[in-house]
Specification:
This protein is mainly α. About 60% of the residues lie in helices and about 5% in strands. It folds into 2 domains: about 100 residues, Endonuclease Iii, domain 2 (Orthogonal Bundle); about 110 residues, Orthogonal Bundle (Endonuclease III, domain 1), CATH 1.10.340.
């Protein structure tokens, strides 16, 4: 893990979100200050996200743990590259994901994907760099920017956990990129912080109450 960051309710970023979106503001007031810790191991994070795609958190973590065990407790490009296709496949992941894991590993070992350099790029350039690598799509690239690079204006419009809270808060049955962007564009340039409150609302069970009860407080 990396740096631990805390935003108080009086921070300019939090106050901006409260003023721009009353419903998000109600979540913020209920949850309180936001504290989170960034990831420093970009390689491990990407491999974990590749494995977890289209799976539950529990299932993804179980399969990821098996890969860590195969690497004798330390997930590194060198150790993963020493594993055969069949060995990686044995952890229970899809054939396509095995190829993606090997692709990312090769990109790191070749020097084409350097995480220090990646994190020094602008968000746009870092996103383009990630998207140029086979196996990394919009969701994975966005998660990297949000949780590793600590970019401040990421709107994860295709993340299942984010969308759960979005549907609950704004009473939407169906959503797409345009609907999310139209509703949440006013969070910019602090979209990432808004997203973190959405995740926290889901994690703490806040989304189980009626929105009307949330807004009355």
């Amino acid at each position: 893990m990396g740096n631990t960051i805390t935003f108080s309710l009086n921070s300019p970023e939090i106050q901006y979100l409260i003023q721009r979106d009353g419903k998000l503001g109600a979540i913020i007031q209920r949850i309180g200050p936001m504290t989170y810790t960034t990831y420093t191991d970009g390689y491990s994070f990407l491999i974990h996200e590749i494995i977890e795609q289209m799976l539950s958190v529990k299932a993804g973590q179980k399969i990821f743990s098996r890969l860590v065990d195969l690497c004798e407790g330390k997930l590194t490009p060198d150790r993963v590259s020493s594993l055969s296709f069949e060995e990686i496949k044995s952890i229970g992941t899809a054939t396509s994901k095995v190829r993606f894991i090997q692709e990312i590993t090769n990109e790191v070992l070749s020097g084409n994907l350097n995480f220090d350099e990646l994190n020094s790029l602008s968000d746009e350039d870092a996103y383009k760099k990630l998207m140029s690598i086979r196996g990394i799509g919009n969701w994975t690239a966005s998660m990297y920017l949000l949780f590793v690079k600590n970019s401040q204006d990421v709107l994860p419009y295709d993340d299942a956990a984010f969308l759960q809270t979005f549907k609950w808060l704004y009473k939407k049955q169906k959503v797409n990129k345009n609907i999310v962007q139209n509703k949440c564009h006013k969070w910019s340039p602090y979209s990432s912080l808004g997203a973190r409150y959405f995740y926290k609302a889901l994690d703490t069970g806040l989304t189980k109450i009626k929105v009307e009860d949330l807004l009355e407080v």
